[in-house]
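Lab notebook, bench 4. The sequencing result for the construct came back, and we need a structural model before the next group meeting so we can plan mutations. Quick request posted to the team channel:

Model the 3D structure of this chain.
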Amino acid sequence: MGFDDSAFIRACRRQPVDTVPVWFMRQAGRALPEYRRLRADRPFMATVADPEVASEITLQPVRRYGVDAAILFSDIVVPLAAIGVGVDIVAGRGPVVDRPFRSGADLDRLRPLEPEADIPHVIDTVKLVTAELDVPLIGFCGAPFTVASYLIEGGPSRDYALTKSLMRSEPELFGRLLDRLADLSVAFLRAQVGAGASAVQLFDSWAGALSGADYRRHVMPASAKVLAGVADLGVPRIHFGVGTGELLGLMGEAGADVVGVDWRIPLDEASRRIGPDRAVQGNLDPALCLAPWPVVEAEVADILDRGQRTPGHVFNLGHGVLPDTDPEVLARVVERVHKGPA
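Done. Here's the predicted structure in token form:
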């Protein structure tokens, strides 16, 4: 089923829409009781590897919220696990790597991804989901810097000290690592689009830890390689990071069609920094969804108003849905977004 005329795809392409499209990062997850029931006794990576279960989880928020796009239930470290890098998603912590990256010898552990052999479950999940969806499916991958930070730190980090140290002290090795990870990301995205995804999102969640100079020199080339590597597929490409207000112009230059914006900067100012050739996505603070409805509604209205001043607007949160969020609040947000600006 083609979705070129859907509100989501049209907004990504800066085309006129009747209603502002909306979806939520982490919309399939711990905020949903149906997700918790399904995941009760299943480890995360085993859940991702089961196409029937992963496709059901992908579909759950579409049914409940009426969002304008689904996003594949998977994780940015799936390609690493698929090529034999020891990595797991640990509850309450996130991705944890058995043997962190330390030297050039570790590059040999990063062989090319062969999707048909390495991630058939992802391909099957996309096919199952798109057979049922009446809205576009977003495929995704981790940006090379964010994936590298997990590899180097061994898990989540507050300061990315090891990552920044390697980046500055051994820039040639760091560049080779990001280039290798860019190839993994391209293969992962192309497999998802080939199976039926209608758009892709590049998650550079931790790029906000960088200065503009470091981002431009050490990180942007690899992200640009990923975005260029799927350009011929003709699907919208979204580029998202957290705390990236000072990097938004560079993220636009990297080649995306849409730049995701967190809540730290007003949406129209973000659009001004990004430029008129990119749509914007965002940017409700996820924490506000725990506030009383009048607070949430006022912020949604303000974002919609600012979105009118952008070349194209996809409504989203500024980061993922928090686990304690009431699903009914998100359903009301969708309803309010679809009503449009006041």
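Residues 7-339 form a domain with the TIM Barrel fold (CATH 3.20.20.210).
Will bring this to the meeting.
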